[in-house]
Amino acid sequence: MDMSFSAEDLAFRDEIRAFINANFPDAVRMNPSEADIKRWHHATYEKGWAAVNWPVEYGGTGWTATRKYFWDRETANAGCPAPSPFGISMLAPILIAYGDDVQREEHLPRILSGERRWCQGYSEPGSGSDLASLRTRAVREGDYYTVNGAKTWISDAHNADWIFALVRTDSTGKKQQGITFLLIDMTTPGISVSPIITMGGSHVVNSVTFEDVKVPTANRIGEENKGWTYAKELLTHERTGLAGVARSKAAFAKLKKISTEQVYEGVSLLADADFRTKLADIEIQLMALEMTELRTLATVATGHAPGPESSILKIKGTEIQQRLTELAIEATAYYAIPFPALTDGLNEPPVGPDYARETSMSYMSQRVATIYGGSSEIQRNVIAKAVLGL
Ligand SMILES: Cc1cc2nc3c(=O)[nH]c(=O)nc-3n(C[C@H](O)[C@H](O)[C@H](O)COP(=O)(O)OP(=O)(O)OC[C@H]3O[C@@H](n4cnc5c(N)ncnc54)[C@H](O)[C@@H]3O)c2cc1C
Q: Which amino acid residue places its CA nearest to atom 32 of ligand 1?
């Protein structure tokens, strides 16, 4: 793979930098408010850069893999907030490939503008790794399905306007063959959302229940009982996105800075041979992952879905993210111990440098990365079966 950048590519990188400086300036980066985040997304929308992976005809950029690489890298370095992935990176490619014209016209512009937020209704109690065993039922009656059942661990359901959900429409054959993919308006009567508070004290995930929820058959993607095919393809987009290379590179640069600032008996942590070896090890892994991601992005740029290789990106990407937070804890040492959820509200001044607070938060929140989007064990099963043919 040729990794050199043309003068044109580098000029484009500078254009991205100028755009970021104008629309997400330094002063905002330290502590962006909700309004700042909205303004940033609106600016990307106005510029036509909101959907870097979509084809031009639907409002995407049509960028080459190199241009996407620069966009990811520059926005990660500047700490720009990423858009919610559920609509823009996960559902949109499925709508484009398998939706009908009415569905595309209804949903794609609203995903692009950020006006319609989505969540992903796949997992159920007892059907996480074994997703195809899901039991939420949809019974067809004329132009409607009546949906009953429960989904769990649904990220952002409390903020979402719509949910894309897998439902069972047939229980007679192989479990994968009776699943249908529906788009459901969250304001439909019979839907309730209740929060699940995770150990870090945050509210991200929810239970969603459906009680006699009427969903027009026009909201079905593709064919009835063929939902498993669309669902699996959507997961390859999700897993590619979870690799998070650009953000890990930014976290690595921060870690290096921390290890320069942490000084014991006049010697910085960066000068410690043992810690430097750990940094070198993670940097090499990150470089290897970056090459794999670029290869995948080059495939996607030719109009293909990422394929089961996305499981490799997901495993390595999330393991690296976790390792980076572990090293940040090691670098921050005892200043990382006062965990914000326990110390918030105390009238003592915070101990340690500013980055210490974020260190323990990131460490805790990254524990879930090897579970969501399919656990690492499940990714290994996918690689064994679909990549290695075992
Ligand atoms: C923070 C967070 C956000 C999430 N967001 C969403 C969301 O928005 N939408 C959504 O639909 N889901 C979401 N999920 C659910 C997520 O996809 C599941 O948690 C995940 O697939 C694992 O399923 P489970 O929790 O039922 O665990 P289980 O399937 O019960 O697995 C338990 C353990 O057994 C192992 N295991 C299970 N089967 C096998 C096997 N065949 N071979 C080897 N090991 C196996 C697993 O690796 C795991 O370690 C989220 C989860 C979390 C934690």
A: 129
CA-nearest residue for atom 25, ligand 1, is: 128
Q: How far is the CA of 130 from the centre of ligand 1 (A)?
A: 8
DSSP result, 201-267? S-EEEEEEEEEEEEEEGGGB-SSTTBHHHHHHHHHHHHHHHHT-HHHHHHHHHHHHHHHHH-EETTE
Tens-place pLDDT, residues 106-161: 999 999 999 999 999 999 999 999 999 999 999 999 999 999 999 999 999 999 99
* Ligand 1 atom nearest 126 alpha carbon: 26
Q: Is 153 in the pocket of ligand 1 (CB under 6 A)?
A: yes
Tell me the per-residue pLDDT of 357-382, one tens digit each, with 9 for 90 and over: 788 888 888 999 999 999 999 999 99
Reported in sequence order, the residue ranges of the chain that DSSP labels E, i.e. its strands, are 118-121, 137-141, 144-151, 162-168, 179-185, 191-197, 203-216, 263-264, 267-268
Domains defined for the chain, CATH in brackets? 7-92 (1.10.540.10), 118-226 (2.40.110.10), 243-387 (1.20.140.10)
Reply yes or no on whether 238 is catalytic.
Answer: yes
Q: Is the CB of 372 under 6 A from ligand 1?
A: yes
